[in-house]
Amino acid sequence: MGEQKIPQVTAKRLPLYYRYLEKLHAIGKQRVSSADLSDALQIDPATIRRDFSYLGELGKKGYGYNVTYLLQFLRDFLKQDEVTNVVLVGVGNLGTALLRYNFYRSHNTKIVAGFDQDPAKIGTDIDGIPVYSMDRLQEVIQLHNVEVAILTVPVNVAQSTAQFLVEAGIRGILNFTPARLTAPPQVRIHNIDLTIELQTLIYFLKNFPSDEEAEPGETNALNMKETGEE
Ligand SMILES: NC(=O)c1ccc[n+]([C@@H]2O[C@H](COP(=O)([O-])OP(=O)(O)OC[C@H]3O[C@@H](n4cnc5c(N)ncnc54)[C@H](O)[C@@H]3O)[C@@H](O)[C@H]2O)c1
Question: Which annotated residues bind NAD(+) (predicted)?
Fold first, then answer.
C-alpha cells in the first residue's frame, strides 16, 4: 500500500471494515452509517468518515454507505482477488468440518461462504464463515468472484444442486458426495470419496501384504485399476 495516498493508519483499519461489512452483508443489510460502524468496531465516527473519504465518494450524508458497493470496493482495494475464493454447499457434518478447517492459512484458498437449505443454519456462521440460503448463491459468488464450489449435500440432491451451481456460474466442483455428477464439458468435477480410498488401502494390504515394490503414499483410487491389472 506504500504507493497509495492513504495513510498507513487508515490502511490498517480497512480489513476491519471489510470483515464487519462481510457480516452485515451476510445478514442482508444494505446500508450502514458511520455511527453503526463506530459502535460495532469501537472506532470514532469522524475517523471512519475520514478513512472512507480517502477512498472516494462512497457515501452520502444522512444516507449511510451502501454495504455491497463498499464491500466490493474494499475487496478490490485490499486485493482479496489474489486469493482464490471458494464456496461450500451443504453445511452438515462434513461441510461444517471443512468450514472449520482453515485452508487459508496454508494455501491461498479461502472458503468465503457456506450455503444450506436448513433455516436453522441460514444466518449463522461457522468460525466466521457466513451460512446463506441457496437463493443468495448467485449474488454471493458474483460478489466474491467465486468459480469453485465444494459440494457436501446429501447424495439424492447432489445432481440438482450441481446443476444449480453451474447455472449460477460455478466452473469447478469438488464433489464429496457419492453421486457421479454430470455437467457441461467446460465444468470440471473432482470427486473425493473416502470409501473408495479406504477400500483401495484395504485391497492393497490384503493382496500385496509385503509388496516391496509398492510405494506407500503414492497409491490412491485413481491408479488402483492400473495396478490391479498387473
Ligand atoms: N467424500 C467423503 O469422504 C464423504 C464422507 C462423509 C460423507 N460424505 C458425503 O457428503 C455428503 C454430506 O454428508 P454429511 O454427513 O455431512 O450429511 P449431513 O446430512 O450432515 O449434511 C447435509 C447438509 O446438506 C443440507 N442440504 C440438504 N439438501 C440441500 C439442498 N438441496 N441444498 C442445500 N443444502 C442442502 C442439509 O441441510 C445438511 O446441512 C453426503 O453426500 C455424504 O455421502 C462424503
Answer: 90-95
